[in-house]
Every structure is written in structure tokens, then in C-alpha cells.
Amino acid sequence: MQKPLLIIGNKNYSSWSLRAWLLLKAFNIDFDEQLIELFHPSATPILNEHAPTGKVPVLVYGQDDEKVTVWDTLAIAIHANDYSTDLDIWTGLSKSVAETNTSTRINSAYCQSIIAEMHSGLMGIRSEMPMNIRAIARIQPSNACLNDIARIEEIFADCLKNRSTDSYLFGHFTAADAFFAPVVLRLQTYADTSDIVLKSTTKQYCETMLNNPHIQAWIDSALKETRVIKEDEAGEILSLNGVLGH
User: What is the DSSP string of 33-52?
Assistant: First the structure.
């Protein structure tokens, strides 16, 4: 198969781009990436050519009548699992093991369910705590936002019970970790300064995720970006890291 192209937005802000990018990286799927500037005229021809919804991320490969276009992060995850890896993205195990073991089917169902919950809900945290990797900021979280954080902490605690202190949600890295990665980065930006007290399990999982080499690579790239997108800024910015922090 031709190497796919993943079109993404600014790494400092684009949480959905991070999900798709991290998933492909974590499952050793070789791809090229093309970064567009969100809300900038330069992005329009690229999105018009490749993205039916006008949004990122979008995964494309092939030419003319054989061109394959996959938009929406969940669709990209499903497509990658079907065609691009010998590992099962819902369990992190080989597909032969995942298909024959009842306990892995239980984990797979749980993984798919929390991904769908993240994908379609938890709008309080997503709207009030937009991903802004370079910033440390303070907000006044609403009850909706705090309820979302409580639900996320419940998910983390349930997944991580009886696991080692440096574990991913299902032991091995799965699509769930990719989908919740932006939550980890949001909490890093806003939680402490907004007096949001996190459970020890949540802090432990955030540390594990922040130590992931692919996430570190994404953060390093984000901190080199200079564009400020007002639509994706929230709260009182207390400090900045990276290029804009100097």
C-alpha cells in the first residue's frame, strides 16, 4: 500500500490531529504528515482537495479512482486497524490473541466504549479547556467541566486498577490512550492553576503519558510553533513555554 498522508492542524492546538497522529505512531504505521494552519486562507485549497468536512485530521492515499480518503479520527482509527497494522488497536495485542481470548474481548469492548464516549461527549472539558500545549492558564471551570473531569478520572481509575504504576489504560498502549492524550495535555495546562484537585491515579497516568516518546515529540514540535490562534485560547494565560516563552 502507498504510504498514507495524514493532514493535521497546528500541533499546539489541534487535539483531534494529535489523536490520529499518535495512534499511527504508536502502532508503527508509516505515514507522511502535512501540517496546515488552522483558520488560515492557506489551508483552504488543501482542505477542499482532501477533506469533505473541511476539517482535520484526514488520511489519504492512492490516486484518481483508487484514492482512499478517511476523515474523522474514529474512522481513521478503525481504518488503520483494518488495513495497516498486525496489532489490534483496541487491546494493543496481536490480532490473533485479541480474537481468541475472552478477557481481551472484554477490554476491547471497554476500550471502544470509552473512545466513543470521548469522541461524542465530554463537551464541558473540551469547550472550556481547549488544548494549548505551550500555555499554563487559569480558568473558572463550570460544573459541566468539573463533572466531565470527574467522569474521566472514574474511567482512568477503573482501567488502571490492579495495574502497575506506569501502565497505560489497558496495560499495552491502545487507541484509548491516543484518544485521551489531549485530556492529559489539557490537565497539564489548566488543572493546578485552576484549583482542580486530581486523584493520584490521574496524576500517575498523566505522568506515564507525558513520558511517552511520541507525545514528547509532538510537544517539542508544538513548542516551536509561533502562531497564536485566538479562537483556541482560553482563560488567563499565566506563562508560556517554547519559542513564545522567551
Answer: EEE--TT-GGGHHHHHHH-T
What does the pLDDT read at residue 1?
59
Helix, strand or coil, per DSSP, at residue 195: coil
Residue whose cell numbers read 487491546: 91
Any idea of the CA torsion for 43, 131, 210, 195, to the nearest 10 degrees? Answer: 170
Cα torsion 42, 46, 47, 51 to 10°: value is -170
d(CA 62, CA 57): 17
Residues sharing a CB contact under 8 Å with residue 214, sequence separation 6 or more, in sequence order: 22, 25, 26
Per-residue pLDDT tens over the stretch 148-157: 999 999 999 9
Residue 208 in this model has a pLDDT that exceeds 80 = yes
Distance CA(112)–CA(119), nearest Å, equals: 10
List CB contacts of 208: < 8 A, sequence separation 6 or more.
Answer: 166, 167, 168
CB contact set of 114 (below 8 Å; sequence gap of 6+): 155, 159, 169, 176, 179, 180
Between the alpha carbon of residue 30 and those of residues 26, 58, 136, 168, 177, the distances in Å are 10, 15, 33, 23, 19
Q: What residues form DSSP beta bridges with 59? A: 6, 70
| Dist. CA 246–CA 243, nearest whole Å | 6
